[in-house]
Every structure is written in C-alpha cells, then in structure tokens.
Design brief:
Elements (H helix, E strand, L loop, with lengths): L3 E7 L21 H16 L8 E4 L3 H11 L5 E3 L16 H7 L1 H10 L13 H32 L2 E5 L1 H12 L10 E8 L2 E9 L11
Parallel strand pairs: 1-4, 2-3, 2-4
Antiparallel strand pairs: 1-5, 5-6
Helix pairs in contact: 1-2, 3-4, 5-6
Length: 220
C-alpha cells in the first residue's frame, strides 16, 4: 500500500479576530479575511503541494473549521465532524486578548504564564490541559480507525488521495506532537502534511507551510 498522507490546516481569521483573541469553544465564524485565507490554502495545496482532492475530509465541527474544510475541499465534499477536535475551553479567558486577561485576571494570568503547559493546569472555569490532551488523543484514535476502515473497503482510493482535517491551533499541535513528535507553530491558515509509510509511525512532509499567507495569532 502507498504511503498515507494527512493534511492538517488551521482555520482562517474569524469575525472575533482570532489573531489576537483567545477563542476556544466559542463558535465564531470565519471573517471575509479568513475565507480568503482558506481559498489561498486551497490554491497552495493544489498548485504548490500537488494535492487537488481528498479521500476523506474531517472538521472539528465548530463553524470556523467546518467552513474552512468546505472551502478547501469543495462545497460537494462530505465533511465528517469530530467533536474531540474542538479547541480547548479557555474558560474565563474566552474571547479576551492577552492584555485584557492581564487586566481582568492578573493572578490567573500569572499562574497561566507559569503553568500553562503543565498537565494539571486548568483554565479558570474552563478545561484542564490533561482533559484536552486526552480528548484529542481519543479523536486521533477515532480518525485513524475511520481511515483504517476505509482502507479495508477501498484501499486504492485512500492510497492515492490524502485526507484533510481543518481544526484549531491547540488541536493541530497536539495531533502532530502525538503522531510525529514535533511542535508546529500552526498560524492561521497554515498547512501541515503528515505521511505514514507504515502505521503507527508518521513523519512530517510539510511543517508550518505559509508562503500563501503571513499571519500570527494566539487563539483557536
């Protein structure tokens, strides 16, 4: 069987300005700029990376990711929502900029700065890092199981057509860390491509591919 490829794209800019605001579970839609970023990603995949179609298309289910998947894969694509890939719940930090978090929750911000990567860190009235990591791991297992089932039914199709996932920064970083042991930056609209020659080993074919855009953002 040929190598399996998985394309991961972070959604584009949102109406809530994800470039500077921390949106996790909040379901904010893409902005016009974000839609343009998704069209640019689709063009880059086709014209630069040689990926014009997908065997299977996944999304987190939040509207900014689902619409991004639809733009990249085409309106006729069947998009499968995986709720395990929702972004982390930032709790009291949802929708705020870093400056606003400092002003409203100075003690929590200091704790966040100190412990944000600790497994036992919990966003105030939000989700713990451990719960988020376990949830994404369940999503990865579910996605790969879906791909394996498709492989058994129609392996020549999957061998030739990559799968696509459009999701969020924290989710994409967690997935690539789990599968390929590297940490992408995962800017808005960025493209990552993973390849598996033999399960369960994955390697990066593209990491933080962004020639089609330049953007920096903290949120999901």
């Amino acid at each position: 069987m040929s190598a399996r490829r998985l394309v991961l794209v972070r959604h584009g800019e949102t109406v809530g300005n994800s470039r500077i605001r921390y949106y996790g579970r909040t379901d904010v839609p893409l902005s016009d700029e974000g839609r343009a970023q998704m069209r640019a990603a689709a063009k880059a995949l086709t014209e630069t990376l040689g990926i014009a179609s997908f065997g299977r298309v996944f999304s987190s289910g939040l509207s900014r990711a689902r619409e991004g998947a639809c733009i990249i894969a085409g309106a006729a694509a069947k998009i499968e929502d995986l709720e395990e890939f929702h972004e982390v719940d930032f709790g009291d930090f949802e929708g705020l900029t870093a400056t606003e978090i400092v002003a409203k929750f100075p003690r929590e911000f200091a704790r966040w700065e100190r412990d944000r990567l600790a497994p036992d860190y919990v966003y105030p009235h939000g989700e713990s890092r451990a719960h988020f990591a376990a949830r994404v791991e369940r999503g990865v297992a579910r996605m790969i199981d879906l791909l394996d089932n498709r492989d058994r039914r129609d392996n020549h199709l999957l061998a030739e057509r990559p799968s696509l996932l459009v999701a969020h920064r924290g989710v994409i970083r967690a997935i690539i860390r789990q599968l390929a042991s590297v940490d992408p930056v995962a800017e808005l609209g960025s493209i990552q491509v993973l390849v598996s020659d033999s399960a369960p080993r994955w390697r990066t074919e593209q990491l933080d591919f962004v020639p089609h855009l330049t953007m920096s953002s903290p949120g999901g």
